[in-house]
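Good morning,

Attaching, inline, the backbone tokens for the sequence recovery test we're adding to the shared suite. The designed sequence is right after.
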């Protein structure tokens, strides 16, 4: 019974969480349609910002896109934001400056909200964030179906901060056609650690899956358990003074990927959870170089 669950994935309801294993996510189809550009948000000299929406698990989820001026096709970077209290979320999040910077450098940038983050429909994830990975995978499928005519669907990468880094790890193990992943102060690929940290942050309100799910299921949802199958290059960045997400989680990921002979580069910064000043400049320079190599964009 448990073996069948691990192979096929299933819906589990403790702590109101939807548990999706990596094999289950790989077995799903993506691209539910319903894509539309809702409105123009801003017009600048180098790019146009638009609000878009599409369907994911039948929910209408939103985001914004920075569309470079010019003929294209342009390589695509999907910027995945970290945890923001969903009730107070706004379409332009704290990661907007990174989306703008990448668009200025000639990338077509997508910034999804995730379900449960206004104006997106649905309930936000409370512990395991794999439902957000489903939203991203559906968005990637829409790009491949031609949602953005000037996007090059053969050249797509992810940049994820904090929670978004954890989501990026899940997505990269499901979508092998991605060309690269930038992890910035990322959560762990071991969901036991993430849930324990979320439980502490939330004062016990979120993350109780840690105590209600069998150990085998927690392993089946953890990207860490599937790194041997990874086919996407990683660029890992973390601040040594990060008080929210332990830097050691990134260093463990780096050691594991190197031991598996996977393509990875790793950088430490004298910085906290969000980089400032010289650390941020160094991060942008290194991330840009990686993305240009991975996407062959110059």
């Amino acid at each position: 019974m448990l073996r069948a669950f691990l192979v096929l994935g299933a819906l589990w309801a403790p702590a109101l969480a939807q548990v999706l294993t990596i094999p289950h996510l790989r077995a799903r189809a993506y691209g539910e349609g319903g894509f539309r550009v809702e409105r123009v948000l801003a017009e600048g000299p180098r790019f146009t910002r638009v609000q878009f929406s599409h369907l994911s698990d039948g929910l209408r989820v939103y985001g914004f896109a920075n569309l470079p001026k010019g003929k294209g096709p342009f390589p695509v970077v999907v910027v995945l934001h970290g945890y923001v209290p969903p009730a107070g979320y706004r379409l332009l999040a704290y990661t907007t400056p990174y989306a703008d910077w990448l668009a200025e450098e000639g990338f077509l940038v997508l910034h999804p909200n995730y379900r449960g983050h206004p104006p997106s429909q649905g309930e936000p994830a409370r512990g395991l964030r794999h439902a957000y990975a489903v939203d991203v995978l559906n968005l990637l499928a829409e790009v491949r179906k031609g949602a953005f005519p000037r996007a090059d669907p053969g050249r797509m990468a992810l940049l994820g901060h904090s929670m978004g880094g954890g989501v990026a790890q899940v997505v990269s193990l499901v979508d092998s056609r991605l060309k690269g992943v930038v992890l910035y102060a990322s959560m762990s690929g071991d969901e036991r650690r993430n849930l324990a940290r979320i439980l502490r942050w939330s004062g016990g309100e979120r993350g109780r899956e840690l105590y209600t799910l069998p150990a085998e299921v927690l392993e089946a949802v953890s990207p860490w358990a599937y790194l041997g199958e990874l086919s996407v290059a990683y660029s890992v960045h973390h601040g040594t003074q990060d008080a929210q997400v332990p830097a050691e989680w990134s260093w463990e990921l780096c050691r594991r990927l190197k031991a598996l002979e996977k393509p990875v580069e790793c950088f430490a910064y004298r910085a906290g959870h969000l980089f400032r000043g010289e650390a941020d400049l160094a991060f942008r320079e290194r991330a840009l170089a990686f993305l240009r190599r991975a996407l062959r964009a110059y």
